[in-house]
């Protein structure tokens, strides 16, 4: 169970995961050793899954963000597993979510341009197990892009 100090630690590192333990302890009103112990417990129990750097996709020649609806030709545990395994092998797919509604999966894809997306669609996506239909939604403007959770 999380207490207010744990929540403060999580909120603080979520906005800046590179701060030192000393700085984190100061911001949370803890001694460095108590802060480290709490941080370690939060990490060991899975509240903290890891740390990453946020990269600029346009500087890395991947400025085009596209969301793709995927409808499978049938729904079975085996096909879901096959599709999921195939998705994990494709680097252009940043996120894949199984959803309820009029389609089966929603993908978040990053590519260089529409020509690269067309190649991805033809060479990767439609070749995945069970893909019957896709709908493509290129993003015109990223209004908000955050991974921070409300804590």
Overview of the molecule:
- The protein has 151 residues and is of the alpha+beta class.
- It has two domains: 4-44, Orthogonal Bundle (Arc Repressor Mutant, subunit A); 57-138, Lrp/AsnC effector binding domain/regulation of amino acid metabolism (RAM) domain (Alpha-Beta Plaits), CATH 3.30.70.920.
- Helix content is 36%, strand content 20%.
- It has five helices and four strands.
- It has helices at 4-15, 21-28, 32-44, 77-88, 114-123, and strands at residues 64-72, 93-98, 105-111, 131-138.
- Strands 2-3-1-4 form a four-stranded antiparallel sheet.
- Helix 1 crosses helix 2 and helix 2 (21-28) crosses helix 3.
- The longest helix is centred in the N-terminal third of the chain and has 13 residues, at 32-44.
- The radius of gyration is 20 Å and the shape is elongated.
- The mean pLDDT is 96.
- Keywords: DNA-binding, Transcription, Transcription regulation.
- InterPro entries: AsnC-type_HTH_dom, Tscrpt_reg_AsnC-like, Tscrpt_reg_AsnC/Lrp_C.
- Residues 2-63 form the HTH asnC-type domain.
Strand content: 15-25%
In angstroms, what separates the terminal alpha carbons?
13 Å
Q: What is the average of the pLDDT values?
A: 96
Quickly count the domains: 2
Number of helices: 5
Morphology call: elongated
By CATH, the superfamily of the largest domain comes out as Lrp/AsnC effector binding domain/regulation of amino acid metabolism (RAM) domain
Q: Main sheet: which strands, in order across?
A: 2-3-1-4
Report Rg: 20 Å
CATH domain fold name of the largest domain: Alpha-Beta Plaits
The total of beta strands comes to 4
Structural class: alpha+beta
């Amino acid at each position: 169970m999380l207490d207010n100090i744990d929540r403060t630690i999580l909120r603080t590192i979520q906005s800046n995961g590179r701060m030192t333990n000393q700085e984190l302890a100061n911001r949370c009103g803890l001694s460095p050793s108590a802060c480290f112990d709490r941080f370690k417990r939060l990490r060991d129990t899975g509240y903290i899954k890891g740390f990453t750097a946020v990269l600029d996709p346009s500087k890395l020649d991947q400025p085009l963000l596209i969301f793709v609806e995927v409808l499978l030709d049938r729904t079975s545990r085996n096909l879901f597993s096959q599709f999921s395994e195939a998705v994990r092998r494709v680097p252009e797919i940043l996120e894949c979510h199984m959803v309820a509604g009029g389609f089966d999966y929603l993908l978040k894809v990053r590519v260089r341009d529409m020509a690269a997306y067309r190649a991805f669609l033809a060479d990767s996506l439609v070749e995945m197990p069970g893909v019957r239909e896709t709908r493509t939604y290129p993003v015109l403007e990223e209004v908000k892009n955050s991974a921070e959770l409300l804590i």
